[in-house]
Design goal:
The complex is a heterodimer of chains A (131) and B (295). Chain A has 131 residues and is mainly β. Helices cover 15% and strands 38% of the residues of chain A. Chain A is built from three helices and nine strands; from the N terminus they run E-H-E-E-E-E-H-E-E-E-E-H. In chain B, a hairpin with a 6-residue loop joins strand 6 (183-187) and strand 7 (194-202). Classes of the chains: A mainly beta (131), B alpha+beta (295).
């Protein structure tokens, strides 16, 4: 299943020079892997490495738009809107995409947040997988 | 205008356009930086000779454009499809976890399934360096053709799919298209050409096996299928470099891998155009490098 990002007019214009394309970028979930693309950046992770996912937001513009690295928890964000997204937490941090640290989490501002949560198996009230 | 492909006219054309054909793949890769048409390449390297470990892997990175490789399935069209990644060159250490463990074993062992009985065949065991198992895949929505129709178009006219600015299938197939046993050469602007024999054809697939003189030793398959209402065009290959010089360009140098990826991604993009549909997401490339198979 493929989940495109949610864009706003201003973010579409801001992110286009970075190579981010509304008609190309998004999140693909298949039986065992999640692949998120964001222009020239991407994350590919096995679903078995995902321990929880939940809807988050809304966000502040300054902290949400673009490829972002949290200095607090080293989480990665592929942000296209301030309205909200899905925050995914990994069992084992994924190899760094930007910045000097590996990423223990990933936030994705997809259009269909509930659909992505469903696809990942975290749509119920308890959104953490017990392993 | 279609450039001449076969015979003396094709040779003259290739000689005259050699400088442009040498530059074309790199120019095409650079152009992706401006257009944003990146691909996703997830690269996993295993040191084991036989079986990649089951560890949880994650790959991520910055797209850089490119590389190729491959592993496969048994009969054409039956391949286990794996996962993927984007952009070019996300290199990581790692193991294959998803699809095609049996394929990975074959790849590591340097053997191809159902090798066509051809005296000039150049299977992986005759190659140099690690075995590269690569899968290139594109998802197409709103396609105007069915999987078998798209495969048939490729079988009848591979040059419609190929980036003929730097790679052509010589000769153009006859009216019946490519059939098992046909020999064809992929002409590239370098010291190596790519002679192959058609190993097998099926309604939704086609396999080429490399012949002596090819820059790689192995095989490559082209497949189409329906998946969740989408048309999927996939290329899968299992190969070693044909000799140490090409391996040096492929692994440490990476230029051969980049050109290879550019070529097959262009084939995927052409498949989207020819299908009349739209690409969903980015072209996905998955590369498993089996270092343990190095000779």
């Amino acid at each position: 299943m493929f989940f495109p990002y949610r864009f706003e007019t201003v973010t579409k214009c801001l992110l286009r020079p970075l190579g981010v394309r509304p008609d190309r970028d998004g999140v693909r979930v298949d039986a065992d892997r999640l692949v998120a693309t964001f222009g020239p950046l991407h994350v590919s992770v096995e679903r078995a490495n995902i321990t929880s996912a939940q809807a988050t937001g809304p966000y502040r513009f300054i902290t949400a738009i673009g490829p972002r690295l949290s200095f607090a928890d080293h989480g990665l964000t592929f942000g296209t809107t301030t309205r909200g997204g899905v925050c995914i937490v990994f069992d084992e941090a994924i190899r760094r995409v930007i910045g000097p640290w590996d990423h223990p989490g990933l936030s994705l501002t997809v259009e269909d947040r509930e659909g992505l949560l469903d696809a990942l198996g975290f749509s119920g009230p308890d959104r953490a997988k017990s392993s | 205008m279609n450039a001449p492909v076969s015979g003396p006219a094709g040779r003259v054309w290739r000689a005259l356009t050699l400088p442009m054909r040498v530059v074309a793949p790199i120019a095409s890769v650079i152009g992706r930086g401006f257009s944003g048409d990146f691909w996703v390449d997830t690269v996993r390297t295993t040191t084991a000779g036989v079986e990649p470990g089951p560890d949880v892997g994650s790959e991520s990175g910055v797209a850089e454009p490119g590389e190729p490789g491959a592993v496969g399935s048994g009969a054409v069209g039956s391949g286990a499809v794996g996962s993927d990644a984007v952009g070019p060159d996300a290199v990581d250490s790692d193991r294959s976890a998803s699809g095609g463990r049996a394929s990975a074993e074959r790849a590591s062992a340097g053997s191809a399934p159902e090798t066509h009985d051809h005296e000039e065949a150049q299977p992986p065991v005759e190659g140099s360096g690690p075995v590269n198992h690569r899968r290139y895949r594109v998802h197409i929505s709103d396609s105007q053709v069915r999987p078998a129709e798209l495969s048939d178009l490729f079988r009848r006219s591979p040059n419609r799919f190929s980036p003929t600015s730097f790679a052509t299938f010589d000769p153009d197939p006859g009216p019946d298209g490519l059939t098992a046993g046909d020999e064809i050469t992929v002409r590239l602007p370098g010291p190596w050409d790519g002679p192959v024999v058609v190993g097998a054809t099926e309604p939704t697939g086609l396999r080429f096996e490399t012949l002596q003189g090819h820059m790689e030793a192995g095989w490559i398959e082209f497949r189409t299928r329906n998946e969740d209402g989408l048309l999927v065009f996939e290329i899968e290959s299992v190969a070693r470099s044909g000799d140490a010089a090409f391996d040096a360009l492929y692994h440490p140098g990476k230029i051969a891998k980049l050109v290879q990826t550019e070529m097959w991604v262009r084939v995927l993009e052409s498949a989207v155009d020819i299908s009349g549909g739209r690409m969903q997401g980015r072209p996905m490339v998955e590369t498993d490098i089996h270092e343990g198979a190095r000779q």
